[in-house]
Design goal:
Blueprint lengths: L15 H8 L10 H28 L7 H10 L1 H7 L12 H11 L15 H5 L14
Helix pairs in contact: 2-3
Length: 143
C-alpha cells in the first residue's frame, strides 16, 4: 500500500537563496549545508504558522477580524518558550507608550517608510535586499 501512494516532497515556502543570505549574516557561519538550509526554512515556516494561528486565536477571542500587534504580543506572552526570546524584539504598542512618545510616533506615522528612522542597532529589511551601491548595473547589448 505504501508503495502505491505517491509522496509529494516537502518544499519550504521561503526562497533558499534569501534564507542562506540571512544565515550568513552571522559571522560564525561560512558555509551552509543544503540539509541545514532545508531544516531552517521548514522550521521558520512552522514557527510563523504557529505565531499566526495563536495570534488569530487571540484576535478571535477579542472579537476582531484583523490581527494586530497587540494580538501578536499577547500570543507570544502566553507561550513561555517563545516569550523568552521574542517578546523583547517586538515593538511596544503605540497606545501603551507614554504621551510624549505617542506624539513622536504620530509624527513618524505620517512619514514614508523610507524616511522613518530605524531603532539603534537595527537595519530595515528592505536595505538587506537592496543591491549594494558599488555593484554596477547589468548591461545588455542588443547586437
Amino acid at each position: 500500500m505504501a508503495e502505491d501512494e505517491a509522496v509529494d516532497p516537502v518544499r519550504p515556502e521561503f526562497p533558499a537563496g534569501r534564507v542562506k543570505k540571512i544565515m550568513k549574516l552571522d559571522k560564525d557561519i561560512n558555509k551552509v549545508n543544503s540539509d541545514a538550509l532545508f531544516l531552517i526554512s521548514c522550521s521558520t515556516d512552522l514557527f510563523l504558522r504557529f505565531l499566526a494561528e495563536r495570534s488569530a486565536e487571540v484576535a478571535a477571542e477579542k472579537k476582531k477580524k484583523t490581527v494586530k500587534l497587540d494580538h501578536l504580543r499577547t500570543a507570544v506572552k502566553r507561550h513561555r518558550p517563545t516569550s523568552d526570546f521574542l517578546l523583547d524584539s517586538l515593538p511596544i504598542p503605540a497606545e501603551s507608550a507614554p504621551a510624549v512618545a505617542g506624539s513622536v510616533a504620530d509624527r513618524d506615522r505620517s512619514l514614508p517608510v523610507d524616511v522613518k528612522p530605524a531603532p539603534a542597532g537595527t537595519r530595515r529589511i528592505d536595505h538587506f535586499f537592496r543591491r549594494p551601491a558599488n555593484e554596477a548595473p547589468i548591461q545588455i547589448n542588443d547586437a
